[in-house]
Specification:
The chain is an alpha/beta fold and about 280 residues long. The protein has one domain: 3-Layer(aba) Sandwich (Rossmann fold). It is built from eleven helices and seven strands. The protein has a seven-stranded mixed sheet, sandwiched between helices. Strand 1, helix 4 and strand 2 form a beta-alpha-beta unit. The chain is globular, with a radius of gyration of 19 Å.
């Protein structure tokens, strides 16, 4: 009995927040594509994503892009649509399995690999662009991740982060919208399309770097410290949000409207001249 207890204790001690993240998103893969805001449900949203990528990354033209935390391949397919050569990397094997099945059905030549956003194992200076959606808020060590992304980008390569500051309303308007969402939620019953293990979700949030919210200014500061330049915060995501809203229940629309949702674009500088 003592040996069993000792082994169980060691397992518990060795279980990290990253293990929680991997297991949580592995389970979420089962219903991930049922949720507006994850999968694409109309052409308005699809067109909005394409416009955002072209605005900050330029034309695809066969250039190499790394989709970090690629999930079920939604963003990878959008990047493929506009001509990028795409590699997707994700921490959760069940997400990758669904992504591979999806691209097999669509016939899209996208490479998906298992890996960690903080240690991709991809070669130095390989990618013309690197993209992620709703990843940064989950990072345990964003400084390590940003340094890793800087490493795998080619000189002049582009980074695009799409994320949101969600836990705490930052303005009076946001607080009012959050309160309205809670009120509507008391009366609006029914399935949301996906299942959330709230206890695990909250435990993860309490341990990640941005536990108090992924504020854009904090992300910008960390990107600058990692060496990125030409950093721009873009909140003009209207077409994407309008398209998503067409398939969302009122509570979810109000909840998301209370959040600061943004894209952050940055660039790895060109190699310094030898002159």
């Amino acid at each position: 009995m003592e040996l069993v207890l000792s082994m169980s204790s060691n397992v518990a001690l060795n279980h990290t927040v990253k293990d929680d993240i991997r297991e949580y998103w592995g389970k979420r893969s089962e219903t991930f594509d049922l949720s507006p805001g994850h999968e694409i449900f109309n052409e308005e949203e699809r067109t909005g994503w394409h416009a955002l990528f072209r605005r900050h990354l330029g034309a695809g033209q066969g250039r190499q892009v790394l989709d970090v935390a690629s999930g079920t391949g939604v963003i990878s397919l959008l990047l493929h649509d506009i001509g990028f050569s795409v590699t997707g990397i994700d921490f959760a094997e069940p997400m990758l399995a669904r992504a591979r099945d999806k691209i097999a059905r669509k016939g899209a030549p996208i490479r998906f690999v298992l890996g960690d956003a903080e240690q991709t194992l991809e070669p130095d200076a390989t990618y013309d662009a690197l993209v992620n959606r709703h990843l940064v808020w989950t990072l345990v060590n964003p400084d390590v991740a940003f340094a890793e992304w800087f490493r795998v980008l080619k000189p002049g390569g582009r980074l695009l982060i799409v994320d949101a500051d969600t836990p705490v309303p930052r303005t009076l308007k946001a607080a009012w919208l959050r309160a309205m969402a809670r009120l509507v939620g008391r009366f609006q019953k029914g399935a949301t399309g996906h299942v959330i293990d709230r206890a695990t979700h909250d435990r993860i949030v309490s341990q990640v770097y941005f536990s108090q919210g992924a504020e854009a200014d904090r992300i910008v500061a960390l990107l600058s410290a990692a060496g990125f330049t030409d950093i721009v915060v873009d909140r003009d995501l209207t077409a994407i949000h309008r398209g998503q809203g067409r398939n969302m229940r009122l509570r979810q629309r109000l909840e998301r409207a209370s959040q600061d949702r943004f894209a952050i674009a940055a660039r790895k500088p060109e190699s310094p001249s030898l002159a």
